[in-house]
Amino acid sequence: MPPVIADPSLLRVLIVLAVTQLIAWGTLSLPAVIGRAMAADLEMDLTAIFASTTVLYMSMGLCSPLLARPFVKQGGRRVMIAGTVLAAPGYALLSTAQGPLTYYAAWLLLGIAGSATLSTASYIVLNEIAGLRARSAIGALMLVTGLSSSIFWPVTSALSAQFGWRSTCLVYAGLLLLVSLPLFVFLLPRRVHDHLPPSSDAAASAPASTPTRSTFYLLVGASGLNAFVAFGMGAVLIELLKAEGLSAAEAVGFGSMLGVIQISARAIDFLGGGRWDGISTAIVAGLALPVAMLLLMLSDGSHAAIGGFILIYGLGSGALAVARATMPLVFYDKAAFAKASAQIGLPLNLLSAVSAPILVELLTRYGSNAPLALSLACSCAAVVILLLLRQRRPMRAAVSS
């Protein structure tokens, strides 16, 4: 049994973060599933609806560096509680939106809240608690959180069909207040502290020296390009599959398979027991993305080819999600991780912010091959940057991998 699972105190934290991250990410997927219904009701075009992703990630990115100090001084529990309390009114405001102004205001509020509750926040909390075993803890968490789309895309579709998208927003606000908030308040440690002994493998992978600024920029470049593809494709996947000839039900069905496949890739990485660091994982996984894009571009609507795309892209993007979260651990020790993660969060979220509108615009104007071609180019560029980063790994990290 992996040590992070065998430790009861860390397992409790992992369960809390897994449930709350599933809810947090799953509820944010509204436009991906019911974007057309929202567009018709609000009298906005589909590109404008998906621009909510831009507002969300821009506000997350701009707020991320501002939270580095609160995370250190107040602890992860308090920051995540505050973010959850702020997110619920965001969904309430979204449920009452009557046009672009209130629609984007709601997503602005959700983005501010997300900077305190989403992935970066959970990774910082785990790093505070698990220390040098944070990579394994993050991998364990991501085994579950990758299911957010598989769980919430069908749920969102069913709720919206039954009650309308506005009531669905209110249901999600209730989930945050009645499930996520009590979990943070009662089950997360009141103040994270260093009490877990590091494993020998973790100690062997500790960074040997402070990385240069150029290394930081390479981390930003590789993470940002892969995030551009991942978040953009996540937002437009259902519409992309429809453009490939699938019905709405088929597109949701194929799209929902993605989360399960991504989990499989993360499980392989997790069960590897720390044999690979984030850079090695990112290089191998990154090579799968261009193959997947080319396959779908040449699919001509074939269900078998679309299934192959979902499989290859799911495996690659699933492993890359772990790599994006853990690559900074290769270069930064525990004391510097929170600061580095917060700084990376700004460009990472800004690139994620523009991904969905760009890919949607390309999809609606030029067809499915245009967003796929751009994603192919970004994926190839990210692999090149990762190969450069591989040469800069601290000696101990390189040996352990």
Write a concise synopsis of the structure shown.
83% of the residues lie in helices and 0% in strands.
**Overall pLDDT metric:** 85
Distance between the termini: 21 Å
The number of strands is 0
Shape: globular
Low-confidence segments, given as residue ranges, are 192-206
H and E string: HHHHHHHHHHHHHHHHHHH
Determine the strand fraction and express it as a percent band.
Answer: under 5%
Helix content: over 70%
Number of helical regions: 19
**Largest sheet: number of strands, sense, barrel closure:** none
Structural class label: mainly alpha
Rounded Rg: 20 Å
Give an overview in words.
83% of the residues lie in helices and 0% in strands. The chain is mainly α and 401 residues long. Helix 6 runs antiparallel to helix 7. The relative contact order is 0.15. It is built from 19 helices and no strands.
